[in-house]
Amino acid sequence: MPNGQIRKALSGYYYVYDEGKLLQCRGRGVFRKRGEQPLVGDFVEYAKENEGSDGVITKIYPRKNALIRPPIANVDQAILVFSVKEPDFNLILLDRFLVVLESHRITPIICLTKMDLLSENEKDDIQAYIQIYQEIGYEVIETYKNDPTLLAKLEPFLKEKTTVLAGQSGVGKSTLLNTLIPQLNLKTGEISQSLGRGKHTTRHVELIEVAGGLVADTPGFSSFDFEHIEKEDLTACFPEFERKKDECKFRGCLHLKEPQCAVKAGVESGEIQSFRYEHYLDFMQEIIDRKPRY
Question: NCBIfam families under this entry (predicted)?
Fold first, then answer.
């Protein structure tokens, strides 16, 4: 059984949480030889020669997932922060993020910021999209600038979960992290008007206790690729496609040109949103065009 969890990594040291205390540890040399690296979020065993000495991590337990940016393991969920304005709501990027999270078996929670900047017509459009994603099965949280209820909206989702934040730059990730973890005092960069995207600073990764759960103290990935996803796995990353796949005539149907495909029929009947199917086709082509890895 593991006797601790890595909560912080900094300058070659790993800080292992065990029964209310953080213990400074080094990783064993054997991890380097095997090409393994302990990650924040790993459940580990460690040994300690005496009371005053550093510990040594001797074993890393199997992970349920691992991310590269931020370098963190055993993530339960990601709060996907997307603005509806400044920058504008980006549907294909949202679906891209959702696909990668689904592929890692990380539960997405969609958090839409800057709702107060919308005109009445724009609000109607966004509400229609909110309903679509809720019907697929995603949680959607709406927030506005300087929202005093933000913490109350997020807290119920955090208990007993390890959570990371993700989203495009300039959408309010740092603001949201500052709300969750006030001691961070992250600099919230203004959007660069020329680039249309925000600025961010990379920091070490630490898991901090918030509302009975753990939150990574750094805004995560601002873009995703599909390097680890094979074309046969893409359907499983679209929950509404996954629910229909057993109705397809052919087992392993990729929902492209196959006859009697239940997903394509669902698009034609309006049961599946056409924009989601178009994004699926775009992502599938990207995976097919990917250079082979040797």
Answer: ribosome small subunit-dependent GTPase A
Q: Which segments are annotated as binding site for Zn(2+)?
A: 248, 253, 255, 261
DSSP codes, 19-55: TTEEEEEEE-HHHHHTT----BT-EEEEEESSTTSPE
Query: Residues forming the annotated binding site?
Result: 113-116, 167-175, 248, 253, 255, 261
Instruction: Name residues of the chain where pLDDT drops below 50.
Output: 189-202
| Secondary structure (DSSP) of 175-228 | HHHHHH-GGG----PPPBTTTTB--------BEEEETTEEEEEEE--S----TT
Task: Give the pLDDT score at 53.
Answer: 80
| Nearest alpha carbon to residue 21 among 36, 37, 8, 12 | 8
Look up the CATH superfamily of 4-62: Nucleic acid-binding proteins (2.40.50.140)
pLDDT of residue 194: 32
Q: Binding site for GTP, residues?
A: 113-116, 167-175
Please provide the CATH number assigned to the domain covering 72-219: 3.40.50.300
pLDDT at 117: 93
Specify the pTM. 0.87
**Torsions phi, psi of 213, nearest 5?**
-135, -170
With DSSP H G I counted as helix, E B as strand and the rest as coil, what are the percentages for the chain, rounded to 5? 30, 25, 45
